[in-house]
């Protein structure tokens, strides 16, 4: 290293300072190279995996194509993570899962595939985009149960693999991870027209994100601009140019994953899209699961109740919280005097409740009224 003459001591120190950062960078490069030797080959999408695991390794390359960094994504198969969606997939409805990255879409869709294959004995074929559902290697992970898996050699060929799975392997259910292009959306729409149940994921926070996404709007039926007549526009109270759904939706139900324990369910995806385009609030169900209060989430049964003042919204909450509310109501009723309200009893119409179902479950308390 050459240093010009006549420099002060502080200036000489500034020349030596960059040397203090060389060794840590060299060590980082060595660790990265050692880690690369432990994983499989990186594909065109710069993704690799560890055989018989659900982990994913993504590479960061420089301008010359050399790998200078790695991103490790830990994958887990959680039994019971899709119990809140059991009633939706049981009747054969196509299901679309929407959520931001890292919220648990792949974990839920993996459990749905296992549930359909093992519990309901259906022929399930998984089109695994990046080997995240079934894991890396030729032997799939045990988390998918008896479902079969087709690997995608290149993400640009996923729409062809979808059609090949239908034509060659006679599946009853097709599970797709990461629908991200218009060709994949068209292939999914073609499969839905053949009467095959679809379970897929897409990136987005809400249904509105899919509606405004030109590449994925076909999943919800497509959007078109319609010009109304003067009388029709006056009757609706809107402008003459409005947005409407172009055709039928590819999926019957839609699920927005809010968090790992909370879901927002749209039972009729077409009605949700129509309501959003017309400026109305869609009918939704909010389902919650508490992992901390239960040892086995597989035995978790959601408690569904509706409120009269919010008829367009069904909330699924913890039954333990509701039982506490019922107990507090009983304590409050015991404090009311028995003769209170006798003077005005004849002026009001009595309300009669007929109980026809009572369930005493260790984790839930259900009382249904007719």
UniProtKB/TrEMBL annotation:
By what name is this protein known? AAA+ ATPase domain-containing protein
Record keywords: Transport included? Answer: no
CDD domains in the cross-refs: AAA (cd00009)
Q: What are the alphabetically sorted keywords of the record?
A: ATP-binding, Nucleotide-binding
Recorded hits in SMART domains, A to Z, give: AAA (SM00382)
The family database entries (Gene3D superfamilies) matched by this protein are listed as: P-loop containing nucleotide triphosphate hydrolases (3.40.50.300)
Organism domain of life: Eukaryota
Please list the coiled coil stretches.
Answer: none
One annotated GO molecular function is: ATP binding
SUPFAM superfamilies from the entry? P-loop containing nucleoside triphosphate hydrolases (SSF52540)
Instruction: Give residue ranges for domain AAA+ ATPase.
Output: 91-222
Is Aminoacyl-tRNA synthetase included in the keywords of this UniProt record?
A: no
Tell me a GO cellular component: chloroplast
Q: Which gene encodes it?
A: ycf45_2
Pfam families under this entry? Spore_III_AA (PF19568)
- Supply the InterPro entries for this chain: AAA+_ATPase, P-loop_NTPase, Spore_III_AA_AAA+_ATPase
């Amino acid at each position: 290293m050459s240093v010009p003459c006549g420099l002060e001591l502080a200036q000489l120190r500034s020349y030596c300072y960059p040397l203090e950062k060389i060794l840590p960078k060299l060590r980082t490069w060595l660790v990265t190279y050692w880690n690369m030797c432990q994983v499989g080959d990186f594909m065109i999408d710069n993704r690799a995996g560890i055989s018989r695991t659900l982990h994913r390794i993504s590479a960061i390359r420089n301008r010359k194509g050399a790998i200078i960094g790695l991103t490790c994504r830990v994958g887990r198969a959680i039994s019971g993570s899709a119990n809140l969606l059991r009633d939706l997939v049981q009747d054969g409805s196509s299901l679309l899962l929407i959520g931001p990255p890292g919220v648990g879409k792949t974990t839920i869709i993996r459990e749905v595939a296992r549930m359909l294959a093992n519990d309901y004995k259906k022929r399930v074929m998984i089109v695994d985009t990046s080997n995240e559902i079934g894991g890396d290697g030729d032997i799939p992970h045990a988390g998918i149960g008896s479902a079969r898996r087709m690997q995608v050699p290149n993400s640009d060929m996923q729409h062809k693999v979808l059609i090949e799975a239908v034509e060659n392997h006679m599946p009853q259910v097709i599970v797709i991870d990461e629908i991200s292009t218009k060709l994949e959306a068209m292939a999914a729409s073609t499969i839905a027209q053949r009467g095959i149940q679809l379970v897929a994921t897409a990136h987005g926070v809400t249904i509105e994100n899919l509606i405004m996404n030109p590449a994925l709007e076909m999943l919800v039926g497509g959007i078109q601009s319609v010009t109304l007549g003067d009388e029709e526009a006056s009757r609706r109270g809107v402008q003459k140019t409005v947005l409407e759904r172009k055709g039928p939706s590819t999926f019957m139900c839609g699920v927005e994953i809010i968090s790992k324990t909370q879901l927002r369910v749209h039972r009729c995806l077409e009605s949700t899209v129509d309501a959003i385009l017309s400026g109305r609030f869609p009918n939704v169900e909010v389902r919650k699961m508490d992992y901390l209060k239960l040892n086995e989430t597989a035995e978790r049964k959601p408690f569904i109740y509706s409120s009269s003042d919010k008829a367009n919204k069904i909330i699924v909450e913890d039954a333990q919280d509701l039982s506490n509310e019922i107990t507090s109501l009983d304590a409050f009723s015991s404090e009311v005097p028995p003769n209170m309200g006798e003077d005005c009893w004849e002026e009001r119409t009595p309300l009669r409740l007929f109980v026809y179902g009572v369930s005493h479950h260790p984790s839930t308390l259900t009382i249904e009224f007719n």
